[in-house]
Amino acid sequence: MDIFVIGVGLIGGSLALDFKATNSNIKVFGIDKNRDNAIEAKRLGVIDEIASPDDLHKADMVIVSIPVDASLKVLMDTLDKINDNAVVVEVGSTKVSIVNAVANHPKRRNLLLTHPIAGTEFSGPAAAIRNLFKGKTNIICEVEKTAFKLQEKALGMFSQIGMRIRYMDPVAHDKHIAYVSHLSHISSFMLGKTVIEKEKNERDIFDMAGSGFESTVRLAKSSPAMWTPIFEQNKDNVVETLEEYISNLEQFKQHLINNDFKAIYNEMQNTNHIKEILKGIIVNA
Amino acid sequence: MDIFVIGVGLIGGSLALDFKATNSNIKVFGIDKNRDNAIEAKRLGVIDEIASPDDLHKADMVIVSIPVDASLKVLMDTLDKINDNAVVVEVGSTKVSIVNAVANHPKRRNLLLTHPIAGTEFSGPAAAIRNLFKGKTNIICEVEKTAFKLQEKALGMFSQIGMRIRYMDPVAHDKHIAYVSHLSHISSFMLGKTVIEKEKNERDIFDMAGSGFESTVRLAKSSPAMWTPIFEQNKDNVVETLEEYISNLEQFKQHLINNDFKAIYNEMQNTNHIKEILKGIIVNA
Hints:
The first copy, chain A, is of the alpha/beta class. The first copy, chain A, has helices spanning 10-22, 35-43, 68-81, 96-102, 148-160, 170-198, 202-208, 211-217, 224-233, 235-257, 261-272, 274-283, and strands at 2-6, 27-31, 49-50, 61-64, 87-90, 111-116, 137-141, 164-168.
């Protein structure tokens, strides 16, 4: 089976590694507009061969794992080029823009829209790791629009690498993911910014920051090239979550200013409830 | 050497475990206003004996590791009760209120003000773990106001359990720590709140939340009883950091509304610089 990975970074590269590890008959071809990435991916054994878009007609499966803005065009071109039995798997963090872009493509039934909820704050071929997806959720959108045999093939492979499959409407996906992923990233980036601006003397941050700070700003290491188009495509939902977040922060600040420490206590106690929710995530991680 | 730990939770309990592990001649006595905590600490081997404040005259060292509001009074009472050669080690997350409270106590020179920058989101005796402090920083305030021999004894023990020692003015401590610790906690609590409010159906959070969300809201599991008095005592600094954080979030939101994605990209790229700062923390963690 010949799998082509377009964008041999964290997600595409990690999928390539897991698919190869669970299927002995897989050969992975890498396509990357950045030639250095492709070369590094081959050197690291993430891909077997470097390929070009002109080779896509040979693919049994194509994984498109590039920033979601570039994805809009690349998905259309890829669908144009593949053979009738190939499945194209898209793995981006937004879905509505993509659904709209591909809606009328004659090969729409060759496309499966997925969002594997997995990742790290790193990027590029060197960030690709084994078992990134084990125990994680893969959200599938508009599954009914993909040819049944192709769904079956791709979803079987995701199950094989340890993923739980969930189905969701693209509008609901973009709305919920704004809360549990996109807002976390903005919160983290702006926290990093606030601290860096204040603490010009980095030595002070370095000495005083503990693991709590590290954990909260971890996502501020994420790739701007990946995240800018996500925020652009999911702008309305992201703005809404930001407004609610800012309003909660404002309220907390007002409680402080009013010396209402009973309210401060209650805010935190009510949110402690997140423990039970997170337990679910961690158990399944 | 008889060490009394007042408040046998995460910090006090973990210090007890490390001190016992690095010094064979140490016996640890636990004092906790919650009798169940004291019993559990003994059962877990965190302390050797349960004691009461009336026993404090026998102590060679007293660690006061309770919420910073209770600490103000307990520190005074403890200094009243100890013998002249004992050292009282305070480990709270704020310093100015404490410095002011103890300034005129006749046994001020028996007190060492420390802030071990270490912890987890858990609390209580069961949260006490070995090596919590290894490679972490301990910030010492007003070191010159502690008798030299007592400084030497306590700091020697902190070095022995692997801590780096840094000296800082209490005002500077409270200002910097508001950025690198207190703000992180509020950011995390409010993120948790925003998501919980929106996602009444917890199943959706559970299924869609990945390790990024988990990392960003980890601190929202922290104890309200510990954090409320910290925010109260450091109110002015915390309000200032919150204002800057909210203003950065507002600006980010405006860039989104204005479709200024170049600015969004730049905000993230500039903050990526946090990587280098965090590398320092992690290397030393």
